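SAMPLE LOG
Freezer: B-3
Tube label: C17
Construct: single chain, 224 aa
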Amino acid sequence: MKISYSGFQDISNFNDNVLIIEEWVDAIVFDRWSNITNIQLKKNAKLQYFGYFSDGISVEKHFETLWEWSDANINCFIHGKGDDTVNAKILWEVAKSKSKIDIDAIAIVSDAWNVHIDWIIQINKGVEKVEGFLDETNIFLWDKWSVRGFPTLLVRSNDVKAGHGCNIEKISDEKLFYLRSRGINKNDSVTMMIQSYVETIFSNLESVDNQFHNNLIEEIIEKI
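STRUCTURE (predicted):
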């Protein structure tokens, strides 16, 4: 499948395996259940990708920069409950110069939930003037959990700016105390804090499709 015009698309029900963002297209994409495993950016293409993965799924996405001057921002939110396991592998392969990649991922880990995540930026040999940044955050709501996360940079070129980080944290007792001291009960305080994490990933959707954004946030908060 090809996206040949700029704007927002929900690709969750697409059955194709390959998605191509055409030249000079500024695409904004939401993905939940699609069969797409390979996403390619052509010259001067821009991509804002929003992924929401939950409920025991296994997902693998291979993004490829095959032409110069492409620009992408990947935003992924992962959540599940009970004994579910989410397996996710997101690989961004940069094969051409003068490109920019930014990956932000948040996983909220509920009781007895397993998370296995591989986030990878691969910058191939001979590629120049590339920026690649990867940030992963795992939030634990309860005391029983299992997470395996490997934010990885595979840099095979010298003329690049790249960095990665991984944060593991629980809901802050200090922030909870602050909210509760202002008359907000514990459940509402936790909900407010969770929503702030969710908005970190999906906030840019609000200006694109306000109703879609609001419905998505409400759905996620209710499930958590």
